[in-house]
Specification:
- This protein is an alpha+beta fold and 516 residues long.
- Helices cover 39% and strands 11% of the residues.
- The strands form ten sheets. A three-stranded antiparallel sheet has the order 6-7-8. Strands 19-21-20 form a three-stranded antiparallel sheet, with no helix packed on it. Strands 1-22 form a two-stranded antiparallel ribbon.
- A hairpin with a 2-residue loop joins strand 12 and strand 13.
- Helix 3 runs parallel beside helix 5, helix 4 runs parallel beside helix 6 and helix 9 crosses helix 14.
- It is globular and about 60 Å long.
Length: 516
């Protein structure tokens, strides 16, 4: 770390996991790329192994084997989220390496997915198409893959999908027909995206487009989850954007750089913004111009953000039930209602789906805890995330842990039995969601694997489009200047029993709003 630590107190914090004020201890040294193959896998408790496997099963068991589409949520009926498809494409490789499925099974599901997206109709018409200009709609019908409702053509969700596409391109490197076709289709899908078309207000990239209204009114400006958008656009072999777009993206960083319950860092209140791009890109030891000036990298920035959220929960100025050093985590998630209730002598506003978070920009917190906020951050700060996973499971597991791991969210402070719930149910411990969300499941399974074996990161280091995008954005140092890292196989493990029988697969009423 480049910010001075507090001497012996923080040296001791390496053992206990905190400096007591939200300041993280120094992160472990990163192994040199040449030594990566010999590096030992990080051991995790059986519960974390189980969580990884159950979360993988969300994608494998619920994905449509005919077209690869993955539901936005389950068990409530929903459309497919293309971002969840990207997480799923990556998870299949993890499943193959862990021995949960065979490599051939993973390749066949991936091939079905890429064949569908490569052939899916594209066009400006409001119905009957899956995308336009190489981008895809945020939500697609699970069966026929066409635009669901009137949702937007999404640049960031297309990018999260492409993260999985490029993972497949680099992971399936054998010479047999199926894997060769995967690589060919991945290149076709990625190369087709017309990134400059989305630069409606140059040089920034628009958040999206609809046939009814045209380009959305807002552009992607940092800092948030969309760094992957710019890396992919810069790395395009056919329709690249110029470096001035990335400079414009980082030009707003200073607005949200500062201290919030810990060390200085680039703030983004919901944790998903610190997780999504880093599912695929290993930012350890590489820096763009802004991070070079600040003396850290994006991985360290996210590590500080994790400690910041934990520090916020420890202080718990709002007095929410359950918050503490091992129960914390705010991110975009479901919630119980959009209504106000009296809690602890004050009128509090509770929300349904919202971008919950705590940072320099804002605090949006109604007592709803989102397990993916902590679990999906395990690669950044395992010393505080593993205790959080363990505590949430021990304290609330019988209500919040089931067939596919942690349900999306829970709120120990919301116990109003007369409330007309939008999602979930009231239990003796408070409100508990009834759904799993694909975009929250993805960071859990993939970041657990990155913590354990660096598998996804190592695969993506080999992808020439990712490397080119990073280099054109101005990233230097670390593995970008080294030889390609070999893929280290993961060690197969068995799934351990759940704390209770899996919930019955009974469909519920559709959610009014999709979780993304």
């Amino acid at each position: 770390m480049h910010v001075a630590l507090k001497g012996a107190a923080c040296a001791f914090a390496l053992l206990v996991g905190s400096c007591g004020d939200g300041t993280p201890p120094p992160r472990p040294a990163v192994a040199a790329p040449a030594a990566a193959q010999a590096q030992q896998e990080n051991a995790v408790p059986a519960l974390v192994e189980d969580l990884e496997h159950r979360t993988f099963d969300y994608f494998w068991e619920l994905g449509n084997p005919a077209n690869g589409l993955v539901p936005d949520r389950w068990p409530s009926p929903s459309a497919s989220s293309i971002a969840a498809v990207g997480f799923g494409l990556t998870a299949y490789g993890v499943g193959a390496e862990r021995g949960w499925i065979s490599r051939e099974q993973a390749a066949q599901r991936t091939l079905a997915t890429l064949r569908f997206f490569a052939r899916a109709p594209q066009g400006p018409q409001p119905a009957g198409a899956s995308g336009y200009k190489g981008f895809f709609y945020h939500f697609l019908d699970m069966d026929n893959g066409s635009r669901a409702g009137t949702n937007e053509l999404s640049t960031v969700d297309t990018s999260l999908f492409l993260g999985g596409v490029l993972f497949a391109q680099s992971y399936y490197d054998r010479q047999d027909g199926s894997e060769a076709e995967i690589r060919k289709l991945a290149e076709k899908i990625y190369a087709r995206v017309e990134w400059p078309w989305a630069q409606v207000r140059k040089p920034l990239i628009s958040m999206g487009w609809t046939p009814e209204e045209g380009a959305l009114k807002y552009d992607w400006q940092g800092y948030n989850e969309a760094i992957l958008v710019y890396i992919l656009a810069l790395g395009s072999p056919t329709h690249p954007i110029d470096k001035d777009a990335y400079d414009a993206w980082t030009s707003t960083y200073d607005r949200t750089w500062g201290k919030f319950h810990g060390d200085e860092h680039l703030s983004f209140p919901p944790m998903f913004g610190h997780q999504y791009s880093q599912v695929w890109i290993d930012f350890r030891g590489i820096q763009d111009e802004y991070m070079h000036r600040r003396g850290i990298d994006y991985f360290e920035n996210s590590r500080r953000a994790v400690y910041s959220q934990r520090g916020y929960a420890i202080e718990n100025a709002a007095g929410w039930k359950g918050y503490g050093k091992n129960v914390w985590g705010l991110s975009a998630s479901d919630g119980p209602v959009d209504a106000s209730f009296e809690f602890d002598g004050q009128t509090r506003l509770f929300r349904t789906y919202a971008a919950r978070g705590a940072g320099i920009e804002y605090v949006l917190d109604d007592g709803t805890i989102t397990p993916t906020a902590a679990a999906g951050s395990i690669a950044f700060a395992p010393e505080i995330v593993i205790p959080a996973i363990t505590q949430m499971h021990e304290r609330y597991g019988k209500d919040i842990y089931g067939e596919y791991g942690f349900l999306d969210a829970f709120n120990p402070s919301f116990d109003f039995t007369d409330a007309k719930l939008h999602h979930g149910r009231i239990t003796p411990m408070g409100w508990v969601d009834s759904d799993y969300l694909g975009i929250d499941q993805g960071p859990i399974v993939l970041m657990i694997e990155n913590h354990r074996s660096e598998f996804v990161w190592n695969v993506m280091r080999r992808n020439l489009h990712i490397r080119k995008g990073l280099q054109r954005a101005g990233f230097r140092g670390g593995w970008l200047g080294a030889s390609v890292v070999p893929i280290r196989p993961a060690t197969p493990v068995r799934k351990t029993p759940a704390t209770k029988p899996p919930p019955a697969r009974q469909p519920q009423a559709p959610a009014a709003a999709a979780g993304g």
